[in-house]
User: Which sequence fits this backbone?
């Protein structure tokens, strides 16, 4: 008998375990789920951005044959007396409650056995509003008289928001501060001071699988089948809303058709649970692609950054004023504000830093987590700012960065050391791959060329917990019970590889049991590039626990030390037949120190650092403003890759997504109404938009606290991408565009305003 | 979506009989690629759809007329059939070239030539090409047949001059020896997008002179429109920068371009000037 090498170990680029099912169309998605007696809910939405509801007329809808019931907040309140939810603030009503806060907000739901009947009826609902003035811009909302909420209602689970409880007369939902040194004094003595203001726009996650939830509440139990990135959180929040213990709420999640942060915390689940509870039948709500624009988005951001720089190119002081447009409901926006605020001075070693990062309510659809968790918005500002300083001072942008870069674990502005953050390695690699030292032809005619680089980093949401169970069956095969959601990133494969490595078995013998809160243990959520690190560590510990139990069993059976009797034989010895299990459990929570509320200082503010750099080369048609990205190189630090091929897929996927936010995507409003809420008018990149020269790589490093040296990869290549392209554009045309997205029209008018270098018409 | 009747007549006469001159909720459907989206969005709620697919045999196909000077293309001919026709490729190469920028394989496999015209969406890519080629449509209604220029089918934004009980049955496309044609789809967002402008140009060229031409602008206007003033500047002129600039100015002056999500009116006027010049130059330089 030949000995076959075990496959699927750490470092192997094995194919994803679910590939065949996905390609053959047999994989389970909630959109396909039908339950007996199930009703479909279709949502009627607000037509005004801000207003008090005078009356909702549901009579015509209720009269449509086949309509089971039309539901408003009054009905919801009969089963859930306090129908407000949210991860950071309990500010979002299950349906509009007396007031609407954005155009598109759910106001009523029609339930019918036939979804088409429900849709037809929903179109017959009318509502009258006393319209209120609306505020859409984040900077305006800071000082506006228009109050989106009368009173702030922080959730108790976020102790750092406690001071905001009951606050009135403000739209500011979080005011994060970091203070390090004395920037004002340092500005006074710095050789140069630069200040710029950058803006990013509102974008949408656009998962190809729109939001969908099926709830079945019966016999004092609630079962939710939902496309969620955070089944454990959904269980906790639904239990809270119902006033039930967690063990009466079951949340199961099969595969997701994309999440990108949008499907986190609680979305449709509260509404659908309430509906099912109300009618005593299973209920499904499946959004259309168009409705997704009203669920959750990425924060627009206005960022004023000011730097004091000495003549030798050292940055001595920096202040960051960041305002995040959180839309009508906080969702996880306060955390985005805080976590992205934390790194908004960039990956530089600066002695004097002050950061103020504010989340504000506006009358837009809510903003929440979105691949990068705010880091791409802040890096757009701090990395374009770096190039603008370099240009003004006549410094090479790479050399200027290198001079100021955090290295050798030096503490970042908060005081947290930058251990295992390969900033210098990533910068060197980009420089090398871009052939930066070689002369670059910028062109002289109609087509101008430019190149740019950028580097950024992010902290990881902390402290968060993952729990894993390894179950070895009597035949030696293995089930891995985790609540990490495989939404396309390949976590099933990675976790099987980690368990296989620790258990010394073939990864194909490990079946990953999908999230089902009745079966799989707690996980904080599949978010923020945390799963490989946190769940990976938990899986490894569970496997180690299983191994020590096997050793104990060997001992119990009186086997000689070093015996290699296979587990099935051992279990047979113990139970007299093929029976029993070995169950290993493991949990992981990283070391963490809560930041000081006044100064934001902490010696351990993140379990690891995500580091990403981008190099871009572009061509600009100066007659039209058309921007062509000819070369795009993304380099990330993911520690040791568990599965290099999956890492590369994650890196390129995140790049393409951020490319959309950089050049195409923008939710555009007129009079408070979204004007382009469909894929016909809201364009995301297709294969045709991907640069010819497209490189996505990771550098070889080690995260010493990670499982087998690994850390997260999902978001990292989004961070520096926009700024690299913005810098390349500026290099080509001699002027920086400060607002995303970089559309041809914006570029054309920037050229016109700059004058000189444009060549007009034919 | 409420229930509706779907009928599949076997003859043209039967189809016309099933249409209703007064009721907009009764409509013919060819490939359905546009209508289905409108129904899904509840913009269009039919009472009765008259599906033409059983008429396909008579109404689809590509053939030369007796004189060999024009193609007759059946209204139910799919885009894919046009795209892959060797005859079309040889004599109207602008058509398969346009197909590569238009929708996707699945849509092209079912979308039909007649339905595309009847839809009258100003952003569609083929109508301006048909206008520039001087194509005519054959229409049948209760009163019999009539033919009209493709240009005369369009009355405005998603509006046609056809009666509700008339059907486009064929398209006649002249083949003009010595003429060259091109279509330029200008997108301002993703590469694959509806055009901000579509420019279709068919012209006879002699040396550096455009001896005759048909120039059409679509997408930026409520219907595809010949740019007659710009044509007048270019017709018979030796092409240089000054002529192209004057043609661009004329094109901007003769059209009312409005702001939309693909660009402001000012920017699109600028794009029209730039791309009109480029289109003419590239046609002059091309062999076909």
Assistant:
């Amino acid at each position: 008998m030949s000995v076959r090498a075990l496959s699927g170990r750490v470092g192997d680029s094995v194919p994803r375990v679910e590939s065949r099912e996905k390609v053959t169309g047999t994989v389970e998605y909630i959109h396909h789920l039908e339950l007996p007696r199930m009703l479909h809910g279709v949502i009627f939405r607000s037509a005004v951005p801000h207003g008090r509801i005078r009356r909702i007329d549901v009579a015509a809808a209720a009269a449509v044959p086949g309509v089971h019931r039309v539901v408003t907040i009054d009905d919801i309140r009969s089963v859930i007396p306090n129908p407000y939810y949210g991860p950071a603030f309990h500010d979002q009503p299950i349906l509009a409650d007396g007031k609407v806060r954005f155009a598109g907000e759910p106001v009523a739901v029609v339930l019918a056995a036939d979804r088409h009947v429900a849709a037809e009826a929903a179109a017959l609902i009318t509502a009258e509003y006393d319209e209120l003035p609306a505020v859409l811009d984040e900077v305006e909302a800071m000082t506006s008289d228009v109050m989106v909420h009368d009173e702030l209602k922080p959730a108790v689970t976020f102790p750092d928001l406690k001071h905001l409880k009951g606050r009135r007369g403000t739209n500011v939902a979080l005011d994060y501060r970091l203070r390090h040194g004395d920037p004002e004094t340092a500005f006074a003595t710095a050789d140069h001071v630069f200040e710029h203001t950058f803006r990013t726009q509102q974008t949408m996650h656009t998962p190809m699988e729109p939001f969908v939830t099926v709830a079945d509440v019966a016999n004092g139990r609630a079962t939710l089948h939902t496309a969620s990135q955070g089944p454990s959180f959904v269980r906790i929040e639904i239990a809270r809303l119902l006033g039930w213990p967690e063990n009466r709420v079951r949340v199961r999640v099969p595969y997701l058709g994309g999440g990108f942060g949008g499907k986190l915390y609680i979305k449709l689940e509260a509404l659908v649970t309430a509906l099912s509870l109300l009618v005593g039948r299973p209920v499904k709500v499946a959004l259309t692609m168009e409705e997704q624009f009203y669920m959750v988005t990425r924060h627009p951001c206005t960022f004023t950054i000011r730097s004091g720089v000495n003549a030798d190119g050292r940055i001595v002081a920096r202040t960051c004023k960041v305002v995040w447009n959180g839309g009508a409901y906080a969702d996880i926006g306060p955390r985005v504000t805080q976590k992205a605020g934390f790194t908004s001075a960039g990956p530089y070693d600066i002695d004097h830093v002050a950061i103020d990062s504010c989340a504000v309510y506006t009358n837009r659809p809510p903003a929440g987590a979105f691949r990068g968790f705010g880091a791409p918005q802040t890096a757009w500002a701090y990395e374009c700012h770096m190039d603008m300083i370099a240009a003004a001072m006549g410094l090479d942008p790479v050399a200027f960065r290198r001079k100021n870069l955090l290295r050798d674990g030096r503490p970042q502005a908060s005081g947290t050391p930058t251990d295992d953050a390969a900033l210098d390695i990533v910068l060197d690699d980009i420089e090398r791959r871009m052939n930066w030292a070689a002369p670059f032809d910028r062109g002289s005619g109609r087509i101008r060329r430019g190149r740019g680089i950028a580097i950024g980093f992010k902290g990881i949401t902390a402290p968060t917990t993952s729990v894993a169970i390894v179950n070895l069956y009597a035949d030696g095969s293995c089930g891995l019970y985790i609540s990490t959601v495989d939404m396309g990133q390949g976590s099933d494969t990675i976790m099987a590889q980690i368990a296989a490595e620790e258990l010394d078995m073939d990864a194909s013998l490990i079946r990953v049991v999908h999230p089902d809160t009745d079966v799989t243990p707690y996980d904080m959520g599949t978010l923020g590039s945390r799963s490989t690190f946190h769940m990976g560590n938990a899986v490894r510990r569970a496997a180690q626990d299983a191994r020590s139990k096997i050793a104990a069993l060997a001992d119990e059976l009186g086997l000689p030390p070093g015996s290699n009797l296979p587990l099935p034989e051992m279990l047979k010895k113990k139970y007299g037949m093929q029976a029993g299990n070995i169950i290993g459990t493991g949990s992981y929570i990283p070391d963490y120190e809560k930041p000081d509320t006044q100064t934001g200082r902490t010696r351990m503010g993140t379990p690891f650092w995500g580091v990403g750099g981008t190099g871009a080369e572009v061509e600009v048609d100066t007659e039209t403003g058309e921007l062509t990205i000819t070369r795009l190189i993304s380099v990330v630090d993911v520690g040791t890759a568990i599965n290099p091929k999956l890492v590369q897929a994650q890196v390129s996927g995140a790049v393409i997504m951020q490319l959309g936010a950089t050049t195409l995507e923008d939710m555009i409003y007129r009079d408070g109404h979204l004007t382009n809420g469909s894929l016909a008018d809201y364009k995301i990149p297709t294969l045709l938009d991907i640069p010819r020269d497209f490189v996505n790589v990771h550098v070889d490093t080690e995260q010493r606290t990670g499982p087998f040296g690994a850390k997260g990869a999902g978001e990292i290549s989004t961070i520096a991408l926009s700024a690299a392209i913005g810098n390349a554009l500026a290099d080509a045309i001699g002027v920086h565009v400060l607002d995303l997205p970089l559309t041809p029209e914006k570029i054309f008018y920037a050229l016109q305003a700059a004058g000189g270098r444009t060549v007009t018409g034919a | 979506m409420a229930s509706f009747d779907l009928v599949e007549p076997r003859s043209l006469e039967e189809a016309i009989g099933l249409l209703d001159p007064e009721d907009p909720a009764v409509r013919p459907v060819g490939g359905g690629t546009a209508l289905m989206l409108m129904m899904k969005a509840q913009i269009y709620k039919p009472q009765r759809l008259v599906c033409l697919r059983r008429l396909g045999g008579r109404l689809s196909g590509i053939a030369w007329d007796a004189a060999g000077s024009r193609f007759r293309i059946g209204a139910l001919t799919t885009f894919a059939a046009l795209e892959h026709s060797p005859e079309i490729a040889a004599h109207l190469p602008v058509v398969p070239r346009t197909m590569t920028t238009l929708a996707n394989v699945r849509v092209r496999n079912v979308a039909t030539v007649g339905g595309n015209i009847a839809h009258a969406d100003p952003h569609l890519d083929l109508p301006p090409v048909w206008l520039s080629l001087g194509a005519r449509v054959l229409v049948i209604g209760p009163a019999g047949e009539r033919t009209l220029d493709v240009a005369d089918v369009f009355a405005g934004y998603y509006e046609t001059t056809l009666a509700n009980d008339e059907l486009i049955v064929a398209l006649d496309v002249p083949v003009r020896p010595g003429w060259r044609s091109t279509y330029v789809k200008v997108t301002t967002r993703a590469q694959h997008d509806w055009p901000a402008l579509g420019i279709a140009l068919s012209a006879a060229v002699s040396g550096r002179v455009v001896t005759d031409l048909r120039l059409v602008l679509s997408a930026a206007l409520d219907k595809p429109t010949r740019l007659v003033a710009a044509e007048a500047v270019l017709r018979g002129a030796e092409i240089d920068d000054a002529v192209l600039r004057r043609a661009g100015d004329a094109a901007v002056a003769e059209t009312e371009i409005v702001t939309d999500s693909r660009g402001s009116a000012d920017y699109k006027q600028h794009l029209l000037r730039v791309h009109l010049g480029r289109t003419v130059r590239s046609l002059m330089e091309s062999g076909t």
Remarks:
- The longest strand of chain A covers residues 447-459.
- Chain A has three domains: 19-27+464-588, 33-132+207-288, 297-461+596-754.
- The CA atoms of residues 667 and 756 of chain A lie 32 Å apart.
